Amino acid sequence: MNEKQAVGEKAVEFVKKDMVVGLGTGSTVFYTLSLLGKLVQQGLSIKGIPTSVQTEKLAKELNIPLTSFDEIDQIDIAIDGADEVSGSLDLIKGGGGALLREKIVAKAAKKLIIVADSTKLVDQLGSFPLPVEIVPFVMKATKRHIQKLGIHPELRMANGAPFITDNGNYILDCACPKILAPNELENNLNMIPGVVDNGLFIGMADMVITVDKNKEVILRE
Ligand code: DER
């Protein structure tokens, strides 16, 4: 079974007529968007808010109608992937470089559903390097401030140059010891001048759709 497809498509069951849907970014939510595109062709009336230029492009290819925060105030449901999911449904996100818009959309949603294959499940966050979005202007000083928190930032590169987010910023991927106090780390990071946001999504997921040891799709809430 393709776990990504199974969990991605399961999430579509929670999308109802006339909903405003936060459209996540990545290879798992790709299956959610693909099935939503088919249902839209069959008459499902929804409006999507994309979390990245990549997702916006895919949604347009699938003819999923799009809206924006200029037109709506609240999102009914956001569906997104994750890079790590802890036992308490806390997340590390940002592997795809879209963490800022993903967090904005997630915060604006009445319900956040995460679709994650079994490889993403961890006992404690921190095996996946924590993505931190920073302003390019002040990178060296920002890296020094981050290192004082006991984590180790590395500039994300793409094609031999710094990776640039949809918002024109850099990403530092930070190797962490096991993250014992994720709330504290998230707040400490975001207080650093030059840090825009980070990939810790603490207490935000309402449901995680994943696969258990018997290869069954399960809902964790
Ligand atoms: O950047 C993100 O948080 C994305 O949701 C992404 O990293 C999810 O991973 P996936 O491509 O394995 O679904």
TrEMBL record:
Catalysed transformations (reactions): aldehydo-D-ribose 5-phosphate = D-ribulose 5-phosphate
Domain of life, per lineage: Bacteria
UniProt xrefs under InterPro entries: NagB/RpiA_transferase-like, Ribose5P_isomerase_typA_subgr, Ribose5P_isomerase_type_A
Active site: E102 (proton acceptor)
Pfam family, one: Rib_5-P_isom_A
Gene Ontology molecular function: any one: ribose-5-phosphate isomerase activity
UniProt-listed Enzyme Commission number(s): 5.3.1.6
Binding site for substrate: T25, G26, S27, T28, D80, G81, A82, D83, K93, G94, G95, G96, K120
GO biological process, one term: D-ribose metabolic process
Gene Ontology CC annotation, any one: cytosol
Pathway where this protein functions: Carbohydrate degradation; pentose phosphate pathway; D-ribose 5-phosphate from D-ribulose 5-phosphate (non-oxidative stage): step 1/1
Keywords: Isomerase
Function: Catalyzes the reversible conversion of ribose-5-phosphate to ribulose 5-phosphate.
Description of how the protein assembles with itself and partners: Homodimer.
Family membership noted in the UniProt record: Belongs to the ribose 5-phosphate isomerase family.
Protein name according to UniProt: Ribose-5-phosphate isomerase A
Organism of derivation: Neobacillus piezotolerans
Organism lineage string: Bacteria, Bacillati, Bacillota, Bacilli, Bacillales
